[in-house]
Amino acid sequence: MRLAEAWRVAWDALRANRMRSALTMLGVVIGVASVVLLVAIGTGTKQRVEQQVEGLGSNLLLVVPGRLDVGSAPALSPLTLQDVDAVGRVVGDPNRVAVTVASGATVRAGNREDFTTVQGVLETTPTVFARELARGRYLTRSDVDTGRRVAVLGDSVARSLFPDREAVGQQINVAGVRFRVIGVFVPLGQSLGVDRDDEVHVPVTAAQRLYGTQRVDAIAVKAPDRERIDELGERIVAELNGRHPGTEFSAVTQEQILGVLGDILGILTGVLAAIAGISLLVGGVGVSNIMLVSVRERTREIGLRKAVGARPRDIGVQFLLEAVLLTSVGGLTGMALGVGGALLVAAVSPIPAAVTWWSLALAFGVSAAVGIVFGVVPAQRAGRLDPVVALRTE
Amino acid sequence: MSRAPAIEAFDVSRTYELDGVSVPALRGVSLTVAAGDYVALTGPSGSGKSTLMHLLGGLDRPSGGRLVIGGREVGTLSAPELARLRNETIGFVFQAFHLLPRTSAVDNVALPLVYRGVGARQRRERAAAMLGRVGLGHRLHHRPNQLSGGEQQRVAIARALVTDPTVLLADEPTGNLDSTTGAAVLELLERLNVESGVALVMVTHDAEVAARARRRVAMRDGVVVTDSATDGGGGA
Q: Could you tell me which residue ranges the ABC transporter domain spans (chain B) (predicted)?
């Protein structure tokens, strides 16, 4: 029998049992759709995180006490503003050095309040992190030097405290101390479910007084030269190690952060795909089951086909093609649903989703392969049926 | 007739293994079906006539003895070779018709040609012509459930003959039909036997039906007890 002929026979057989074929496909449809959708979400999340890390500004070097590793506990910082000056000297330009000392605090304005992150920073922050203001102005050198009680609000905080008023020029109360709002940031949006506009910037000196500390949590450096960013990191770490014997420091680049985040998100995507793959496997078992039922049901047909000259191989191929057709039509439907679902998720929810060609190709290939793998046993059984016995079956 | 015999069986036996016990169904049958022969195969149930029928049609292989169909030794053929032999030399007609449901008469008749690799167009032409010969030229696109029992059996006969076989094996072809319809089917089979020279071997319970054959082979307990051809001094 010619292959084209065999496809047609398989197709006719599936059409003859539309309901059953559709229900059998459903398992594969769900499996493939979830693989495509979940991989799209994983990939989309990874892409967005990468964009955001890159969006922090280019050539960024983060200097923190302790090791920056997955699973290591954050260390208490021994860094002070004197260390920041020292780092500035290593870099050769103090305007390329930013700091943060952050703490959660309740911020009030009138009868409204908001619990947010209050960050003590230098006037260099917009340069280093490429932050832009929507309104008003940012902190100045003199604000930092004098510990002036002025604040720049993230978009969310400004909306929360001043829903119907212009925030710039208003007074806010941070942990019992009054600050004057001088600016509002351009919104950044969400990242991994975290609202990046939920923050207030105040001069580091004012923050230290507020928290009763001399420390800074971390130092960020915008390296002047991308090529020598690692070397600069080493020199900064060496300088800090000299100033604080016994404490370890790390200088990490965006690439390193991206690498760590990429690893985590890659594992996450893999786990999601594997879970979805299990449902595809279950769908395949369903196909196998129905094919066995079909072989049994059509025993007489098989006997007759053999009597008129079908070889065992012809019968086997016919049933194998039926299984492959079931899973590939199911696979195509699942792909369409998965892509549609991903577009829907991306459009109506904050979860990013990016459909990749490789996931489509993989899902389709796997579903066709599932048809072959789970169709082989029923097909062999059909091919080996004794025509005499098959014809006698009622 | 000078043509080579269509089927020759020499001391053919067939034993089934049932739960480790050997059950002999045929105990040494010798039989020659000549080209254009018309044989009625009779015997009580369990006499081995169905087993012999399956062997003569190449659906099964003998446990002992020699079986030659269309000049080929069945015992030496692989399953695909046997399938091809059936396709080329044998036509089957069954008591229960065995038509494919949800498939038109013309496609049912064309089925053996599918396995011969004949193209779709030519298949349909030959199947339609064959249906015309059995008097169903007006029923080409009817499905089996739209046809009467007699018409279904005629479709089955057309399917058996579309490949131009040398032997037509009919297993109780009138068993599921009323007497009038049965007689018409029988007449059709006899007409085709004469017209196209296909040998007709028919298993039947019906003494009247058997009486119409040119040759009667009676079986009991796995052996041939009477063969009118040998009784008359002809045959092998």
A: 7-236
- pLDDT single digits (tens) B41-77: 999 988 999 899 999 999 999 999 999 999 999 999 9
Q: Kindly provide the ipTM of the predicted complex, given to two decimals.
A: 0.93
Q: Residue A5: which of B86, B94, B114 has the nearest Cβ?
A: B114
DSSP classification of residue B13 = E
Asked if the Cβ–Cβ distance from B111 to A314 is below 8 Å, we say: no
CA closest to A13 among chain B residues? B102
Phi-psi sector, B135: left (phi>0), alpha (psi -120 to 50), beta = left
User: Residue B117 belongs to a domain with what CATH number?
Assistant: 3.40.50.300
Average pLDDT over residues A103-115: 91
For A390, name the nearest residue in chain B, comparing CA atoms only: B59
If you measure CA to CA, which chain B residue comes closest to A388? Answer: B59
Within-domain flag for B27:
no
- Which residues form the domain of B185? 37-58+80-229
* Number of domains forming the structure of chain B: 1
The whole-number pLDDT of residue A78 equals 85
A-chain CB neighbours of B59 within 8 Å are: 306-307, 387-388, 391
